[in-house]
Amino acid sequence: MSEERTPEAPGAPAPQTWTLAHPERMEAALYLCPTPIGNLGDITLRTLWVLSQAKVVLAEDTRRARVLLQSYALKPPELLSYHKFNEASRCAEVVAHLRAGQSVALLSDAGTPLLADPGARLVGAVLAEGLLVIPLPGAQAVWPAVTASGLPALPVHVEGFLPRLKPARRRRLAALATLNDTLVFYEAPGRTVACLKDIEAVLGDRKGCLAREITKRYETFWRGSVSELVGRIGAETVRGEVVLVVAGAEPTGESKEDLEQEVHALLAQGLSSRDIRAKLKEQGQSANEAYRAAARGRRDETTKEPR
Question: Are 47 and 123 within one domain?
Fold first, then answer.
């Protein structure tokens, strides 16, 4: 495997080995290592320990990764690029390293690997070979945005980035229109207004929250209706990474009796509880109510007296 190295930056701290209060064994595994999304203090001790022990560290942008690693006095034996243009060759190299008993760490540019970052193909290749993947918990933007939004924190549908073009974006929003779950979208600053206007046009003027620059110096949360958020952006320029949190659809209001009758009819058709929950959610029932209705229906069916 070729190694990408650059001279150590002048004045860089000496490499450091991080320790854990409860030591664990370093495995021959692919470790998925989250990185801070803005505040360097948000990295975990376990992530630092893995990065200090890994034989190979993969990063989409090795320059950004090198700055991060040097901030914590880390200098891995190999720091290699991993992006969509070299995925195929890197997957084979990583599998070879793991088979040789070595550990490999995958870093995201910011946040948790695979969430709007490359890595899914690599994880699939490692698992297909029967090798170990170990995910580490850590920084990401979704849950800070959801928990500070003032909207229900569960259930949540994380959509990520919507399509760039308006027609495709509106089609995707229409597919989400009946979901009762709180909706979460990522968006670039320059497209935020257009995205919010499409949300209002397709989903209605729901409650929402615009979170930007999470964990950074200018962290901001704007709360209000979608139209109010559009007006707020008109008065101020949006900069930095944006997370949009939008209220889910209102429950349909179907009576408990009607819902139970529908569940029994679906059971009679041979549908499983899982299929029934999915069908009820498609019809606009909340995830919790769909689950309870399906469970009640299945319980009633199993307790019926034989004729």
Answer: yes
